[in-house]
Specification:
alpha/beta; 3 domains; Zinc Finger, Delta Prime, domain 3
Amino acid sequence: MNESSLYFLWGKEQFLINQQIDKIAAQVREELGEEPEVLYFDTDEMAPHEFREQLEFSPLFNLYRVVVIKRPYWLGKGKKRGNKSEEFIRAVNDYLDSEPQGQTLIFSAEGQEKTNPLVKRFSKEARIIECNSLDAKYMSKWVNDEFAARDRTCTPEVVKRLINSGQDMYYLYNLIEKLCLQIEGRKIDEKDIEAELSIRDEIKVFKLTDALLKRNLSGSLQAFHQLLEQGEHPLLFLIMTARQFASMARVKAYQEQGYNNKKIAEITSMKDFMVRKFIESGRHFSWKEIEACFEQCLDIDFKIKNTSQDAVFLLEGLIIEICTRK
């Protein structure tokens, strides 16, 4: 394969890796004039021969593919690659040797392990893109651009505080989005972010729970898998989902009792924008649906802690149930 159809993305900043994947897919779309099929292969869940078969491209409708293999363990150091690593490496080499057409391959890894035989090959045949944290100058521009994209501005102190927080870009992206929803009509200052930076888990899950309350299935699943890519445990999502639904239920109950937004904010100690959000979300959920959600969260919590059932599978089921339940 040539450099234009083989990519190796390496680095610890998953936000930048996913951004590069989106850019590559967009470039392929522009060149083709049609939407390519984008597939993600999890080689932890398949045998080497199955992976080799999946790499073979045999389209039914001449559809071009963009295939993404994220952080496979067999792109690491020799001692950490595991028993089947050589078989996976051989499968990739065999595939590349066959001079395939009709698809773009994207590999990603946290590091560029130059002793790995495939990484050595990538250095000669692939386009290599580093995706580690941006330096202060580019991070400053990125933060300002994200605020501007939401028609908001912030003080220089906010920019400095965010880029020095040590948080990953997904966290900062979600925090910026929350701040822009929360604060209207003025420039965001340093006092606005101090309290938010101390509740890291809530910020990381904000994008997901926000999509859930809107019953946005694709947005919820995308945000959930982004959390997994950042190394978050599925139980964090379960806890925050139950907490958000409990808050929505409280607001819904007070509203049905005739309380106005200001009084609800006073009783619940919630900020005005959260009350407005939960009032809007509450219109989309009946009390029967809210009760069913709590029951399902309790059931999943028990299964994760007491059975061998896959937590990701269980939580994907919860997301689908919440977003599609009638």
